[in-house]
Amino acid sequence: MNYHWNWDIFFQTIPSGDETYLMWVIHGLGWTVAISLAAWVIALVLGSLAGILRTVPNRRIAMIGDVWVEFFRNVPLLMQLFLWFFVVPELLPRDLSLWVKQDMPAKEFITAVLALGLFTSARVAEQVRAGIQALPRGQRNAGLALGFTQAQTYRYVLLPMAFRIIIPPLTSEFMNAFKNSGVAYAVGVWELVFVSRQMVEETGGQVIESLLVPTVLYIVCAYAANRIMAVVERRSHVPGFIVAK
Amino acid sequence: MLNNLDFSVIPLALPAIGKGLLFSLQLTIVAMIGGVILGTLLALARLSGGKWLAGAAKVYVDLMRSIPLLMMILWFFFLIPLLTGRPVGQENSAMITFTLFQAAFYSEIMRAGIQSIPRGQVNAALAIGMTYWQSMGHVVLPQAFRNMVPVLLTQTFILFQDTSLVYAIGATDMLKAAENAGMLYGRTVEMYLFVSVIYFAICFSLSMFVKYMNKRIAIIR
Q1: Do B161 and A176 form a contact (C-beta atoms < 8 A)?
Q2: What is the ipTM of this complex?
Q3: Do B68 and A74 touch (CB under 8 A)?
Q4: What residues make up the domain containing A201?
Q5: How far apart are the first and last CA of chain B?
Q6: How far apart are CA B119 and CA B114, in angstroms?
Q7: Which domains are present in chain B?
Q8: Is the confidence at residue A244, as pLDDT, over 60?
Q9: CB-CB: which of B78, B165, B175 is closest to A211?
Q10: Residue B190 and which of A46, A233, B38, B151 are 20 to 30 A apart at CA?
């Protein structure tokens, strides 16, 4: 294999304009981080809500959580992204539909965040449910026996423990949010995968450089997510329970 | 709105979508079988105690697990022609990528499975005169597989959903077939809705099956 390395491509300007490819990569990283973090916030809020709903004693309400999870878990992420991007606008009322298609600002970004956030929320919900169910039954009963309402029992007894138990699986979901954010390229967000593909095409075969830099940046992002969660895990650890160093 | 939808194009597009689905399933099955075999070997390598062998397997698994699949698909698609000097086609490239990528995930599952077997069983097997490989093949692995069936299936469920990512290199899986048909008949919305329902039906049945297996295995234990 005779491959001609050429790292200078990152300092070349793009064909149309005066930006360098390096600037592209930096922008790409910015979008990747923005999508992943925004989606993670949605996933955490809605996923916690759905996960909690699944554990309430009222079966009817618990069903809502179940349906939520099954719906967002059983369709591939890319497919969900296309549903939000191409299909949902068509199903809206006429005026709203026109606005979404023509005037909505940052449409690609918002759709990608929504799709990734909802997809991840189903996974978060699974973890939250597992965390709550991992607690001894007596804890809920003790809360109720003390005169707490159902909501208070969740707030003061169950959730403070459950969320701490599930930090390790939530860490991997947080990292997955970064790894999965790449699908946003398919609707035209200029994130790392998009930049990477564009560079492969435009630089005439500098494949390895064009793929290596975004790949390393993904790994760095996922590692940063891991470290952030490790800090959260240490700070929130319950005395007497095992915690990762 | 909904009344503008015209689902009468679905029968016309059915053969193309069926072909796409067939490829998605083929990719899933090839990557599952290849991945489980390769993954088991990787797990055995990691538990072999050999410093270099275990180290190499660990590096491979960690690397694969830390890179997004979408990037991996692009890597293989562009690198294989560079290494071999000729293009291998999107479909073959996808098969190779998915097998090598999934092997890392299956290997972690198999490692957990092997480690769930009490050490005494290996010692017992060795004591009655089995070699290391015999003890693995006849005693440890059959039990490890059995205990890990639900987890292996869950991973396959993820694998099946991930096959849609071959869209990135233009391989014609079910999603791509739907897009093509949608453009051909000018009915993208209907096509996407239709294949989402198929994806949902397959994934939902698979996840129900995993739940059922979980229950069965729990009872036997």
Answers
A1: no
A2: 0.89
A3: no
A4: 18-235
A5: 53
A6: 10
A7: 2-220 (1.10.3720.10)
A8: no
A9: B78
A10: A46
